[in-house]
Amino acid sequence: MDAPTMLQLTCHGDAGHVVEVALDRPSAMNAISTAFAEEITATTARLAADPSVRAVVITSTHERAFCVGADLKERNGFTDAQMMDHRLVSKLAYRGVLDLPVPAVAAVEGFALGGGMEIALSCDLIVAGEGATVALPEVGVGVIPGGGGTQLLTRRVGWSRAASMIFTARRLTAAEGGALGVLDEVVPAGTARDRALEIAAQIAANSPVAVRNAKKAMRLGMGADLAAGLEIEDGCWRATAFSGDRKEGVAAFAEKRTPEWPGH
């Protein structure tokens, strides 16, 4: 894959099943401009369509920031019409991360603010270094989280904790974020990327068909009642149980060897 201007892509592992997407706009601490949002959308679409990808890790090349959110300098000059055009572009970027069919792990070091935090929330797991600072501060500049933050954070930590964080616009340390469940793991500063890649490698070692269908069942079932969720799970189970991966998994277990997943 050719790396876009503001993203660096690296494949990890012998077969390259783990793809690291590094946010790389250091001059603006990875603030999300219109062009940056378009690149995120295009890149996630390519990853989603690539059957060889089993896990994605989102990192940053900037040691002081994962992403500080929207590019407010760019927005400051927008007309109302331009603001609406940008809204459509940015929505696609966040949905591109959220809709990845494979697990995504965010590795946060430094600041993850506003839209940057929403990129992390759009991932399935968030690993943060001890020096990280996270926040959804949008109400402090006259808007609300618009990259999924109001929905994803509430689903992750519950109403009251999400309300406290969003309504006050307060910044959380990594320790506070970990205690509230905003972050899944807090690790020594500077090691979030290594830990995220380790988790992704563990994911990639499993059946790609099973992992994709497990994520599909979980995501679709979140918005359904229990009965409907169980039906969603059953459909995903059927799609997995009669796959080549299931046959290989059972055979490898019986033969006491490492599976060689066909991935179909």
TrEMBL record:
It catalyses: a 4-saturated-(3S)-3-hydroxyacyl-CoA = a (3E)-enoyl-CoA + H2O; a (3S)-3-hydroxyacyl-CoA = a (2E)-enoyl-CoA + H2O. SUPFAM superfamilies: ClpP/crotonase. Gene3D superfamilies: 2-enoyl-CoA Hydratase, Chain A, domain 1, Lyase 2-enoyl-coa Hydratase, Chain A, domain 2. One of its GO terms (molecular function) is enoyl-CoA hydratase activity. This is enoyl-CoA hydratase. Belongs to the enoyl-CoA hydratase/isomerase family. It comes from Ornithinimicrobium tianjinense. One of its GO terms (biological process) is fatty acid beta-oxidation. It holds the Pfam family ECH_1. Its EC number is 4.2.1.17. It is an enzyme of class 4 (lyase). InterPro entries: ClpP/crotonase-like_dom_sf, Enoyl-CoA_hyd/isom_CS, Enoyl-CoA_hydra/iso, Enoyl-CoA_hydra_C. It comes from the Bacteria. Keywords: Lipid metabolism, Lyase.
